[in-house]
Amino acid sequence: MVITVFGDLVQHRGGQVSTAKLGEVLGRVGVEQGALRTALSRLARDGWVQAERIGRTSHYRLSQQGLARFAPATAQIYAPAKVAPVMRWAMVLKLGATGRQEVTVCPLQDVVDQADCLVSGDLRTVSAAYRAMLLEDDHRTALTALAADITALAGVEIAEPLEAAAARVLLIHRWRRIVLRFPEIPWELMPSDAPLANPRHSVAQAYWRLSETGEAWMGRDTTASVASHQANGRFKPV
């Protein structure tokens, strides 16, 4: 949760935050001060963060090692929400260590690893059985919880900056645990009964409803902060 706060509220604002500020937002979501101190101590010991004393207050920032581990995950979490139809698809075949074939279907532009065989073209037919196979039970359960959060957020107007910041942290923390654990399914291949038809787009919409008010809690110019988010391309639709 501490790393989620760094990624969502701290890094684009210079990368440094006081323990008081961390305690305020994490306390709002139920993290006790003792648990926060333990977490920061463990993160420092494991090389994730480094501390600096400014007056009577301790401030933390990600270490160089932490940044190196943090950056790839951040890019994956905040990748653009894809809403435009995919024009070219790929069927990718890879041979495992034992010679077993692994076949996946994905947008052609998403192919980054070298394939043993790659076929590209139009997507003509996708059966309900194939769609259902893509969304495993654990993934479905996680998306169901995410969908409940998004529905709850859509039903309220959060005007208090701390409340918005805390809600945004919880939203991103749940999304982070999903996107870093499960393969992302293109929305065109989602089962018709999936909890969310396009999870990344749904998260992006909820995120931007909270962003301006949540940024205000950090105590700097809101307009500049939101513009910074947009410039960084967080969830920007493609």
What descriptors fit this protein?
single chain; Arc Repressor Mutant, subunit A; 9 helices; 238 residues; three-stranded antiparallel β-sheet; globular; 3 domains; alpha+beta
Q: How does this structure look, described?
A:
The model has no long low-confidence stretch (mean pLDDT 90). This protein has 3 domains: 2-76, Arc Repressor Mutant, subunit A, CATH 1.10.10.10; 87-122, no CATH class; 127-231. By secondary structure, the protein is of the alpha+beta class. Helix content is 50%, strand content 14%. It has helices at 2-10, 19-28, 33-45, 64-77, 128-134, 137-154, 161-179, 199-217, 222-231, and strands spanning 16-18, 49-54, 57-62, 89-95, 101-107, 117-121. The strands form 2 sheets. The protein has a 3-stranded antiparallel beta sheet. Strands 5-4-6 form a 3-stranded antiparallel beta sheet, with no helix packed on it. A hairpin with a 2-residue loop joins β2 (49-54) and β3. The radius of gyration is 20 Å and the shape is globular.
The largest sheet, given as strand count, sense and whether it forms a barrel, is:
3 strands, antiparallel
Structural class: alpha+beta
Number of domains: 3
Compute the average pLDDT: 90
Helix tally? 9
Distance between the termini: 29 Å
Q: Concise description?
A:
The protein is of the alpha+beta class and 238 residues long. The chain has nine helices and six strands; from the N terminus they run αβααββαβββααααα.
Summarize the helices and strands and which ones pair or pack.
Blueprint: H1 2-10, E1 16-18, H2 19-28, H3 33-45, E2 49-54, E3 57-62, H4 64-77, E4 89-95, E5 101-107, E6 117-121, H5 128-134, H6 137-154, H7 161-179, H8 199-217, H9 222-231
Antiparallel strand pairs: 1-3, 2-3, 4-5, 4-6
